[in-house]
Amino acid sequence: MKKIFFYLWILLIMSICSYNLTIHYIPNIVYGVFHNKIEKNQGIGDNEIKHFDIPNYKSRDVVMPNPDFLYSVSFYDLSSGDLKLKGNMPDSTYWSVSFYKPNTINWYVKNDKEFNSNRLELNLTINNTKGKNIINSPVKKGLMIIRILVENKDQNSIDYYKSLQKSITIN
Question: What are the Cα distances from residue 41, in Å, to 44, 53, 70, 96?
């Protein structure tokens, strides 16, 4: 009987450890690896934005990226103050802004249907401020991804969407 309780106790401890590892540590490790990979391979740091071309079969910064989207990525750090996100967005196709915690949990997403215009103007803060276009981040550091759908793959359409993508700034 003592052996059964011993094995059940070991099983319980292993279950708790596995749960904590899976929920708390592995997502942060994934974020850290992705952050270091982008920083090293793309030469961007925190609070800088990287505009990626339309993914192709060789693109692997993100596993199996969607080839219909242009991506803009930024790792943000609010320890030095608030950030302003600005840019011109398309008015005739889908686009979205998403923010993620370092543990890979998405905490904010807003798409083109939820904005009143095609002008992107958001203020990211940690200070629990209220107001128009203010986003209160639950964490000091995280990831932002902007996606722009490119429906037509002709060069004129791609150039147009890329020009809009390049208008996006963070400071």
Answer: 8, 15, 18, 25
**Measured between alpha carbons, how far is 92 from 55 in angstroms, rounded to an integer?**
21
Instruction: With CA atoms as reference, report the closest residue to 90 among 108, 69, 61.
Output: 69
For 117-149, what is each residue's pLDDT tens digit? 899 999 999 988 888 889 999 999 999 999 999
Give the model confidence (pLDDT) of 8-38 as tens digits: 999 999 999 999 888 888 888 888 888 888 8
In this prediction the pTM is: 0.83
Which has the closest alpha carbon to 77: 29, 143, 28, 147? 143
Residue 73's contacts (CB-CB under 8 Å, 6 or more residues apart) are 38, 49, 50, 52, 143, 144, 145, 146
